[in-house]
């Protein structure tokens, strides 16, 4: 290989100004003598009164500017001290921790420490600002427990399904061990270490794709079937969404996202891809339905700004509202996407967690219907974290009707692949038809019950909820309890809920809801006994509150 | 009705999706495809292609199987332990905390210490888990480098880096050229040259990435060279990533000198040093997808942890491996036995190649040998070229039916070197491969020996 033959990546569009990292100017070898010498003249009084005062001021100003521009990059001092404190626990690790802290004052290296990338630095800032993450942290620090910590923070902000864990656990206890222990006979050969341990396709083993395709068909009322070859398995829906985003849009491009939407997308999608998310507000007067008119307006506004919209992103069932996107709206969305020649991404992770009387319609059903459509613009995100309560397994799905996207995503999946033993375990579970049917049925019943319990509890204290048909949340209207009808007012209420009522709920602003006062409350982490506690806690806020509307 | 896949005429895909940066058009991967089409099997396809291009460790599977057989609760859900069932299950099924299971991180830290003979200590809270070393390397690249920046990497290097480090990140690789004259060791001059090259091309060098033990060379880095590299990164105020994925596969002297050892005696470098590890090679468990980012820089640890949301390891896998790795007796025995078996395989391979008249770079680690076939490229007059090397590679693949990795796909500056794996097959298969090699060399020697008698 000749010198100069650098393996250079195809050039990516310039992103100056977006990443906020400054170019470091040339280092001055003279040690700043250019400033000292003229100063001598001024000090010795040769400059005259006016110049004698102006010049030092000017020089001082420039000195400050010089220092500012040559300041070493932000060192890992205070922001990370919280993280560092946890590493101080083990004496064995003390050496590296102590060294680290001393260094962070930037003493030894005159030029400071090597910087992190813009993407490395942005993340931490973003997380610190978001109420969504702040609430999760608060709860993690002081979690409620009926007997050991009755005054702790009750978690209503994290979508974990505790309602049907017992069903899954029982299955695991009976089947998991044998499923993974190396067997002697041919039948179990696949499950020997050799079968489990060796390299497998990064995009998932065929058996799992087939099992998931069948599972997805089942939860969508068997009205549509899925082709395993259009599927890419990744380590969780979070990575599925990111990988798909990498495939359909470039840095600086945007997705239109009907709001309110899942707060996690702000980090999951924007962080490393550089894709912008443009909220397209839906209104309560409209039942938070997606408005094509609003999408049209947002699309044109983006165009005026010079931002290229690459797709529309929806969740169905919706997070946070819990409603289903009507079939006609899905058709309209496809029409819109076709007109603009953009992608349509449907996050359907809650498709199996439906309750109530309405029927869920996946975008897959509508795609199937329309023969002459260019299906290559439609993609579905799925995962087992919600519907099967198996968040710890990290199994997500990208299902795309575009074979180029499937091929690209399959290769990118190498960065987010799933353990083979986990895949096998999941195959075993999904293949147990009897268990799956029973699980889905019981889980739905429990979801329905828990939903009703929380909705009724909230009603007791005067809080109305939007009608949900699926998912893990009540979308609650607490606007009458906020003093000023604004985002600030909502934030104050959220603060009170967290600090006084010790309830962690997700404020609508984190979901980009334009109407203040809506809060997302998860009902799947509550037991029946917790409900009266929640009611009592809420009364701390709602009682004696004069309605302001 | 199954949806038909229409050709994707519109809408457009992203640059990432359409770029060739996935690198799967290189010979490295072409060989794999040839193998997939015609794989060797002792019984059903004895003339098929033998896969010698995959660095997988299959020599110690029985040890792992033995452990799982004796400790079924590791793989199962521990229902036996009274009262622990529900809580532990809930933790496992739901656990998706990007901190990773504490027990697993502790077990991993202890394993990493054992591998280094206790010469360095690892803090479990600095361990960030990722789904494989591939993800760990990409993660660090995202965190330490901006799009358009460059990583300086000594050649020859693992072909996968071209894809893993550049594809989504937008970061470039500038090679640090190493030569056989000094056993392909990194020199300060080469580092400086690469740094200048990057600057001349308008790229900011974000760091140096070493693989120690080296893939594809199969050698460990000398302490003095490592010190030089550390001095260099301090001088340039850049980062150092040390990919130590083969650290447990050092089977002969000299012992591994890990950068972790040096950091403990050099406080000035800590903030810029980051280590990548994985269980794929040392434990032979690539299918489990377990990688580690270990950083001495708090900011990097915090950010890496959050970024690992995109590449978490399943809780069930963490649990199983925690049980295995925290069993000190098992871990020590495994490390020792694995090393011994690798050494035997390595020596067997080197001896077989020597008999065939093919020398190798003297190696002491890894799952492969760096084979010297330069002699076979000469004779056409003039210097050997990459084209010559690829012709030979093609010959090896399609006639000798051995998939070996050409040095050019590892960006080696000298044509004629090949990486050949020895641990991903049975001993019998290895012997078949060596026999084929022997026959090939016989034919070659006969064909190229100048006719003296006339």
UniProtKB/TrEMBL annotation, chain A:
Residues 1-33, 72-94 are annotated as: Disordered. The keyword Heme does not apply. Residues 154-538 form the Aminotransferase class I/classII large domain. Residues 16-31 have a biased composition (Basic and acidic residues). The chain crosses the membrane at residues 48-67. Keywords: Lyase, Membrane, Pyridoxal phosphate, Transmembrane, Transmembrane helix. SUPFAM superfamilies: PLP-dependent transferases (SSF53383). Pfam families: Aminotran_1_2. CDD domains: AAT_like. GO terms for biological process: amino acid metabolic process. The keyword ATP-binding does not apply. Its cofactor is pyridoxal 5'-phosphate. InterPro entries: Aminotransferase_I/II_large, Ethylene_sulfur-biosynth, NHTrfase_class1_PyrdxlP-BS, PyrdxlP-dep_Trfase, PyrdxlP-dep_Trfase_major, PyrdxlP-dep_Trfase_small. It comes from the Eukaryota. Residues 78-94 have a biased composition (Low complexity). GO terms for molecular function: lyase activity; pyridoxal phosphate binding; transaminase activity. Belongs to the class-I pyridoxal-phosphate-dependent aminotransferase family. This is Aminotransferase class I/classII large domain-containing protein.
TrEMBL record, chain B:
Pfam families: Aminotran_1_2 (PF00155). Residues 50-436 form the Aminotransferase class I/classII large domain. Keywords: Lyase, Pyridoxal phosphate. GO terms for biological process: amino acid metabolic process. Its cofactor is pyridoxal 5'-phosphate. The keyword Nucleus does not apply. GO terms for molecular function: lyase activity; pyridoxal phosphate binding; transaminase activity. Transmembrane segments: none annotated. Coiled coil: none annotated. Belongs to the class-I pyridoxal-phosphate-dependent aminotransferase family. This is Aminotransferase class I/classII large domain-containing protein. It comes from Lolium multiflorum (Italian ryegrass).
């Amino acid at each position: 290989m000749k010198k100069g033959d650098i393996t250079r990546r195809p050039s990516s569009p310039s992103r100056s100004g977006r990443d906020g990292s400054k170019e470091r100017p040339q280092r001055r070898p003279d040690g700043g003598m250019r400033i000292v010498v003229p100063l001598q003249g001024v000090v010795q009084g040769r400059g005259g009164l006016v110049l004698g005062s102006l010049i030092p001021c000017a020089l001082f100003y420039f000195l400050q500017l010089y220092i500012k521009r040559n300041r070493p990059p932000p060192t890992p001092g205070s922001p990370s001290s919280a993280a560092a404190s946890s590493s101080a626990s083990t004496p064995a690790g003390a050496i590296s921790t102590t060294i680290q802290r001393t260094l962070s004052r930037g003493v030894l290296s005159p030029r400071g420490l090597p910087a992190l990338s813009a993407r490395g630095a942005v993340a931490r800032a973003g997380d610190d600002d978001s109420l969504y993450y702040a609430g999760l942290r608060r709860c993690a620090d002081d979690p409620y427990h009926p007997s050991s910590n009755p005054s702790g923070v009750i978690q209503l902000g994290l979508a974990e399904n505790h309602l049907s864990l017992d069903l899954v656990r029982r299955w695991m206890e009976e089947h998991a061990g044998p499923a993974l222990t190396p067997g002697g006979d041919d039948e179990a050969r696949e499950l020997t270490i050799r079968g489990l341990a060796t390299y497998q396709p990064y995009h998932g083993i065929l058996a799992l794709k087939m099992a998931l395709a069948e599972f997805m068909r089942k939860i969508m009322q068997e009205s549509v079937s899925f082709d395993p070859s259009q599927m890419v398995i990744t380590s969780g829906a979070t990575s599925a969404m990111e990988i798909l985003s990498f495939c359909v849009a470039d840095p600086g491009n945007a997705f239109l996202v009907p709001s309110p939407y899942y707060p996690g997308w702000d980090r999951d999608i924007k962080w490393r891809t550089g894709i912008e998310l443009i909220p397209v507000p839906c209104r309560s007067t409209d039942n938070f339905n997606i408005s094509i008119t609003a999408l049209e307006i947002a699309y044109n506004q983006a165009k005026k700004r010079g931002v290229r919209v690459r797709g529309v992103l929806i969740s169905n069932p919706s997070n946070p509202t819990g409603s289903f996107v009507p079939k006609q709206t899905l058709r309209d969305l496809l029409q819109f996407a076709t007109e603009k020649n953009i992608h349509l991404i449907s996050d359907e992770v809650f498709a199996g967690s439906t309750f109530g009387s309405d029927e869920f319609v996946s975008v897959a059903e509508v795609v199937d219907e329309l023969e002459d459509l260019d299906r290559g613009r439609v993609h579905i995100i799925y995962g087992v974290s919600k519907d099967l309560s198996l968040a710890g397994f990290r199994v997500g799905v990208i299902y795309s009707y575009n074979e180029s996207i499937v091929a690209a995503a399959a290769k990118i999946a190498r960065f987010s692949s799933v353990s083979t033993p986990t895949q096998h375990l999941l195959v075993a579970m999904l293949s147990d038809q009897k268990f799956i049917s029973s699980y889905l049925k019981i889980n739905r019943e429990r979801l329905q019950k828990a939903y009703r319990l929380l909705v009724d509890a909230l009603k007791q204290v005067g809080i109305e909820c939007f009608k949900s048909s699926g998912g893990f949340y009540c979308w609650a209207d607490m606007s009458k309890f906020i003093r000023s009808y604004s985002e600030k007012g909502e934030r104050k209420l959220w603060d009170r809920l967290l600090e006084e009522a010790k309830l962690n709920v997700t404020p609508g602003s984190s979901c980009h809801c334009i109407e203040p006062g809506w809060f997302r409350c998860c009902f799947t982490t509550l037991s029946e006994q917790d409900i009266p506690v929640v009611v009592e806690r809420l009364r701390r806020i709602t009682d004696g509150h004069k309605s302001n509307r | 009705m199954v949806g038909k896949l229409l050709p994707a005429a519109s809408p457009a895909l992203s640059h990432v999706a359409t770029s060739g940066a996935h690198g799967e058009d290189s010979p490295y991967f072409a060989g794999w495809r040839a193998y997939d089409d015609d794989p060797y099997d002792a019984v059903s396809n004895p003339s098929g292609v033998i896969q010698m291009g995959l660095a997988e460790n299959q020599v110690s599977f029985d040890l792992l199987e033995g452990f799982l057989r004796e400790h079924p609760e590791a793989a199962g859900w521990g229902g036996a332990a009274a009262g622990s069932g529900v809580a532990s299950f809930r933790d496992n099924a739901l656990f998706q905390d990007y901190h990773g299971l504490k027990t697993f991180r502790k077990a991993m830290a202890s394993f990493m210490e054992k591998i280094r003979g206790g010469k360095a200590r690892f803090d479990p809270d600095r361990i960030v888990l990722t789904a494989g070393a591939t993800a760990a390397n990409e993660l660090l690249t995202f965190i330490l480098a901006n799009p358009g920046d460059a990583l300086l990497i000594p050649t020859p290097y693992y072909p996968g880096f071209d894809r893993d480090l550049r594809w989504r990140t937008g970061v470039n690789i500038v090679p640090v050229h190493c030569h056989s004259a000094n056993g392909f060791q990194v020199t300060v001059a080469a580092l400086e040259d690469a740094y200048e090259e990057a600057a001349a091309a308008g790229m900011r060098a974000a760091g140096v990435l070493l693989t120690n033990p080296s893939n594809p060379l199969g050698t460990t880095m000398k302490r003095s060279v490592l010190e030089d590299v550390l001095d260099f990164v301090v001088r340039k105020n850049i980062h150092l990533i040390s990919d130590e994925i083969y650290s447990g596969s050092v089977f002969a002297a000299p012992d591994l000198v890990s950068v972790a050892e040096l950091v403990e005696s050099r406080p000035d470098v800590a903030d810029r040093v980051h280590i990548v590890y994985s269980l794929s090679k040392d434990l032979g468990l690539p299918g489990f997808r377990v990688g580690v980012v270990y950083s001495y820089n708090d900011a990097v640890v915090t950010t890496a942890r959050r970024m690992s949301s995109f590449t978490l390891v399943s809780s069930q896998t963490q649990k199983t491996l925690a049980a295995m790795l925290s069993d000190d007796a098992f871990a020590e025995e495994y490390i020792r036995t694995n090393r011994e078996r690798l050494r035997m395989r390595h020596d067997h391979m080197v001896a077989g190649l020597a008999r065939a008249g093919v020398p190798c770079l003297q190696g002491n680690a890894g799952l492969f040998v760096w084979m010297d076939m330069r002699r076979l490229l000469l004779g056409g007059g003039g210097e050997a070229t990459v084209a010559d090397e690829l012709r030979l590679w093609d010959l090896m693949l399609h006639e000798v039916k051995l998939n070996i990795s050409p040095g050019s796909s590892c960006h080696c500056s000298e044509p004629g070197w090949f990486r050949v794996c020895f641990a991903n097959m049975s001993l019998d298969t290895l012997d078949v491969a060596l026999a084929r090699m022997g026959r090939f060399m016989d034919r070659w020697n006969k064909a190229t020996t100048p006719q003296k008698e006339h």
